[in-house]
Amino acid sequence: MDRLLLLTLLITTTLPLSTSLPSFPQCFSKIYAFGDSYTDTGNAIPPRRPYGETFFQRPANRYSDGRLMLDFVAQSLGLPFVPAYLNNSADFKNGVNFAVAGSTALDSDFYSSRNLSISFLSPQSLQNQWNWFSQFLQAQCRGAHAKDGCIDDSILFWVGEIGANDYAYTAGTSVLPGTVRELAILNVARLVEGLIKKGAKYLVVQGLPSIGCLPLSMVLMSSTKDDIGCSAFADRQSQLHNSLLQTKLEELRQHYPNTVIIYADFSGAHRTIMQNPQAYGFTEPFKACCGVGGPYNFDLIATCWTDNVSPVTWQRASACPNPEKYVNWDGVHMTDALYRVVADLILNHGYSRPPFPELFSSKGCVN
Ligand SMILES: *[C@@H]1O[C@H](CO)[C@@H](O)[C@H](O)[C@H]1NC(C)=O
Ligand SMILES: *[C@@H]1O[C@H](CO)[C@@H](O)[C@H](O)[C@H]1NC(C)=O
């Protein structure tokens, strides 16, 4: 079984909302990012083709057919795509990405002490990303430029979705979702506070997607569906998680009133799209674009990221010809098209709290 099996988890021509993403060039000069495969731009082993084909026309070290949410954010800020920390040949002058596919919000020790450290489990937790960040600062801030850890107002901190892997890794074990929720949010809050103490002034924290709408959840636990046809149990975990996360972020805002902390409502945007997919240009809300067999074009054994043959159809996963019509890319991760609409909803259409433009106005940037 591939380790990615347990990973978690905008269309220019027909877009009914704004026709382009907002553009705030020169507001921030760097993005420092954290997260899992929803945000990773190359720290984890890149999947083979057809990953990256839609936008990049080549494998682009992302778990999507094209760009991720973070890529659209970078484009809106007039910045280059954020390079992966582990890429030795990358130029970090406009930012660095510590997000790594498979990453957990809970510490690695949590899993190893419960014998849940399955061999294919990525060892990278949010704690590891913090360690990478600390090493990065030490290396960058050596010598004459060293002051206050080299963090200034020109940096946007992006804490991408994290925690979905924890729910996936503990599903069916004695670890309860409530435990995962408490510990995951504690660690996210710890990261945010750690960043603030290092000098971060502008942060965006992304909530979980609606994990019940992923083909993975639909295959494993769709016995009870919610009002939009997604797995009710899994979606409830997303909602509970995101609401506790927002409570924690509000506490941090009270504690650090000079810091701007934006909550990016990924699941709100995701659900809005799932409620009315056609309005956003999607004809396939539930099927994975890249996969094989079954009602969701998703087979746990023959996934897009493996070369395995399905024991049911005797075929390998392959990509659909029109990924721009699909919400989901490979059963677990989203398409370039979905990330584009979600980015637009979050940046432009109120799917963030406080509204995203406050990030720019509080910094004195004008569009
Ligand atoms: C590393 O960065 C270089 C230079 O930007 C880029 O060409 C290459 O694709 C990157 N590799 C990975 C694994 O991200
Ligand atoms: C984990 O596995 C080891 C070795 O099999 C065993 O000794 C230990 O009791 C297990 N721990 C738990 C918490 O199950």
Tag the structure with descriptive keywords:
SGNH_hydro_sf, 367 residues, alpha/beta, SGNH_plant_lipase-like, Rossmann fold, six-stranded mixed β-sheet, two-stranded parallel ribbon, hydrolase, binds 2-acetamido-2-deoxy-beta-D-glucopyranose, globular, signal
Topology:
Blueprint: E1 30-34, H1 53-56, H2 69-76, E2 95-97, H3 108-113, H4 126-140, E3 155-159, H5 164-170, H6 177-197, E4 202-206, H7 215-221, H8 232-255, E5 260-264, H9 266-275, E6 284-288, E7 326-328, H10 336-348, E8 352-353, H11 357-362
Parallel strand pairs: 1-2, 1-3, 3-4, 4-5, 6-7
Antiparallel strand pairs: 5-8
Bound molecules: 2-acetamido-2-deoxy-beta-D-glucopyranose (2 copies).
Brief overview, please?
It is built from eleven helices and eight strands.
Walk me through the structure.
By secondary structure, the protein is of the alpha/beta class. It is built from eleven helices and eight strands. The protein has one domain (4-362): 3-Layer(aba) Sandwich (Rossmann fold). The protein has a six-stranded mixed beta sheet. The relative contact order is 0.16. The chain binds 2-acetamido-2-deoxy-beta-D-glucopyranose (NAG) (2 copies).
Task: Indicate the proportion of strand residues.
Answer: 5-15%
Q: What is the level-2 CATH architecture name?
A: 3-Layer(aba) Sandwich
- Secondary structure class reads alpha/beta
Largest beta-sheet characterization:
6 strands, mixed
Shape: globular
Order of helices and strands: EHHEHHEHHEHHEHEEHEH
Average pLDDT works out at: 89
In angstroms, what separates the terminal alpha carbons? 48 Å
Oligomer: single chain
Radius of gyration: 19 Å
Total number of distinct structural domains: 1
